[in-house]
Amino acid sequence: MEEKGTVSRNFIEQIIDQDLNEGTYETICTRFPPEPNGYLHIGHAKSILLNYGLAKKYGGKFNLRFDDTNPTKEKTEFVDSILADVKWLGADFEDRLYFASNYFDQMYEAAVKLIKKGKAFVCDLTADEIREYRGTLTEPGKESPYRNRSVEENLQLFENMKNGMYEDGTKVLRAKIDMASPNINMRDPVIYRVAHMTHHNTGDKWCIYPMYDFAHPIEDAIEGVTHSICTLEFEDHRPLYDWVVREVGFEHPPKQIEFAKLYLTNVVTGKRYIKKLVEEGIVDGWDDPRLVTIAALKRRGFTPESIQMFVDLCGISKSQSSVDYAMLEYCIREDLKLKRPRMMAVLDPVKLVIDNYPEDQMEYLDVEMNLENPQLGMRRVPFGRELYIDREDFMENPPKKYFRLFPGNEVRLMGAYFVKCVSFEKDENGKVTEIHCTYDPETKCGSGFTGRKVKGTIHWVAAKTAVHAVVRLYENIIDEEKGVYNEDGSLNLNPNSLTVLNDCLLEPALADAKPYDSFQFVRQGYFCVDAKDSKEDALVFNRIVSLKSSFKLPKQ
């Protein structure tokens, strides 16, 4: 009988519990095994945090291993970006940083062992012929005419492959399993191919490289991984995974467990598509804030805590499902709302002059950092005769229920005084250039004034001390109404995914903001200092997320 208060566990934890209870493993070891052929995205974050979280929960170990067995697509740039992403997410692999390429000698010896056991053979069929011989889901495959070469001949041919005697594509090493297997992955799969390529880690030492399905179980077994957790597309590969570790003869074979991938609606995660966006200059790199690579989310202003919250809300299951991007936005709002100060920033400025305020006077007003979290304290904000307010906070002919500034109306300047609009000026195009007001010195915020009330409160910055900044507003890079892809496979791009505001004015406390610092701009949303384009004398802010959303958490 279950004790009261027992927390229900996901199916992976139930398997681990059983393995520990039955003594299958004494301790737990998990790993995250990215291929360094692009930047990681939000789906990878789920895998990183899942594997690290399990190791932490069970007092085990978590490894980071680069699955770098395909030199045609791999770059040191991608290795560096992945390292930075994993560390930023807080997944501590300690000193356990590994490369599959460090095991190439052991993989070669494992292949030789299979040949000696009569479990592998060198095949001369072309890739197209191998595909043709493989059969279909309803028809068995045909055996290669090279399948019954002698052990001696296979050993010699495989050594010749290693010594660079054959051109790419002319010979492969295949496992000898069962061409009639109902699982196509077991129909004598290729486990080594010839590839005369320079490798980012091993240089030109090798001209043959192991295939993923052969390399991966060996890597796991060498490192002592107990639970090899991967996504559902590898479920049909599990019999081959088990075959490799069994036939190579590892004493404590790891166990592969599959879970459902994380799918986000209306986002681009495919490396091929992102690469094209980068190469065509549609985005400014793999870390463009409109993308959902981990580097892009970090640059935009998301936090590791918000991504952990998102992964926890998504849960772990065996069934595929999609999650709305709005849930990720919900998580960053929840994470930031009590942590970050609420600052005044005017994104579309128009000058406001208080005619009856002393011309040369500047005073400093005490304003709360965050009304919902008094522990963040107060800041002093300069106030003077000339201010800037947002253009949308003034209307010459307002509609009903417009409570901000218009001729004859009185509003509160946030943290300051009541002001009343007495006149305004326009340019030759009819655009308002200056608003004139009077203020009531009795209405200073915090003075206890109760004489009358106003319905509107607007934010502002003092003209003399305002800090200039560029602000970027983002929408989805995908046109959500049309879906992600066109019929020809190209992306449906949103032409309005980026709006750049060049003449924004901020309160002076933001002058010292550093890359990745984030704030709430009153009424505008949450913003982060851009780490790539911001300079000390030229601040650039990215909008992380707007303040409000219709998203609600589903009821439990």
**Overall number of strands:** 27
Strand order of the largest sheet: 12-25-26-27-23-24-13
Mean pLDDT, to the nearest integer, reads 93
Unreliable parts: 1-6
Principal-axes geometry comes out as elongated
Radius of gyration: 31 Å
- Helix residue percentage: 10-25%
Please tally the helical runs, counting DSSP H or I stretches of 4 or more residues: 12
Largest sheet: 7 strands, mixed
Q: What is the CA–CA distance across the termini?
A: 24 Å
Structure description:
This protein has helices at residues 11-21, 42-57, 76-88, 104-116, 127-133, 151-162, 212-223, 238-248, 271-279, 294-300, 304-314, 325-336; strands spanning 29-32, 61-66, 97-99, 120-123, 172-175, 190-194, 208-210, 227-231, 255-259, 263-264, 322-323, 342-343, 345-346, 349-354, 362-368, 378-384, 386-390, 410-413, 418-426, 432-440, 457-458, 461-462, 467-474, 498-506, 518-521, 525-529, 539-545. The chain has a 7-stranded mixed sheet with strand order 12-25-26-27-23-24-13. Strands 21-18-19-20-14-17-22 form a 7-stranded mixed sheet, with no helix packed on it. The protein has 12 helices and 27 strands. By secondary structure, the protein is an alpha/beta fold.
